[in-house]
Amino acid sequence: MLKVLFFARIREELDCPGIEVPWEDTVADLDNLQARLCRDGGPRWQEVLNRANMIRAVNQAVVAENTALNDGDEVAFFPPVTGG
Amino acid sequence: MLVVSVQQEDFDISALQRQLLAGEQEEGAVATFTGYVRAANTGREVRSMELEHYPGMTESSIRAILERACKRWPLLAVSVVHRVGRLQPGDQIVWVGVSSAHREASFSACEFIMDYLKNEAPFWKKEEGPQGTSWVEARAGDRERASRWDDDIQP
User: Fold this and answer.
1) Residues of A with CB under 8 A from a CB of B
2) Which positions in chain B touch A83 (Cβ < 8 Å)?
3) Inter-chain contact B124–A8, Cβ cutoff 8 Å?
4) Predicted TM-score of the model (pTM)
5) How far apart are the C-alpha atoms of B98 and B72, rounded to whole Å?
6) What are the structural domains, with CATH classification, of chain A?
7) What is the complex's ipTM, to 2 decimals?
8) Of B56, B120, B124, the CB nearest to A60
9) Per-residue pLDDT at A59 exceeds 90
10) B2-142 has which fold?
11) Domain boundaries, chain B
């Protein structure tokens, strides 16, 4: 199982704080997981998750490139941060 | 000493500053920064603000920034408090405190921590005003401020 989380504007636009995706070989890396979410979610998810400034994190660390995933990983999608 | 707190409650600056002192009188310089909610942002009136974070990652990313600061300067204590939830104009949002033997390390580390916090720590601000609600956009200027530290010669 992969735990997928969405934050801030992304969470609002998808109307979804997070979902669980059953583990299988077809979601074994970040790009493939994202493609799966877009396919299952439809045009709205396709548009929101492919925004140019999207930040992706695996197990609470930001990743700049595609990366391998393992069963049990936590993946997050969020917009550029604006704290402080 | 390295302390990170992400909390809804307000904080007491003088109590936080006292906690930077270990009691051995080694500290010669404490530098602190406090961030507040402004009543207007990019010309728009702000009546309230909602601060969202990523529990777990927010704390660990701030901790990583503090550890980087401790490697770069000879610091005695570093502390960050950041609020989440609903805030009003005038409210304190964030506090950074640094103690060291001399002022240069404290001043520099305090600014370094704040610059990286704004760019790396997962917080998101949503402002509410007469025109409705809107997510605050990240500013390119904040990224540039943090990247200044990349090229600096290590002390």
Assistant:
1) 5, 7-9, 53, 57, 60-62, 76, 78-84
2) 51, 53, 82, 94, 117-118, 121-125
3) yes
4) 0.94
5) 13
6) 2-78 (3.10.20.30)
7) 0.94
8) B56
9) yes
10) Aldehyde Oxidoreductase; domain 3 (3.90.1170)
11) 2-142
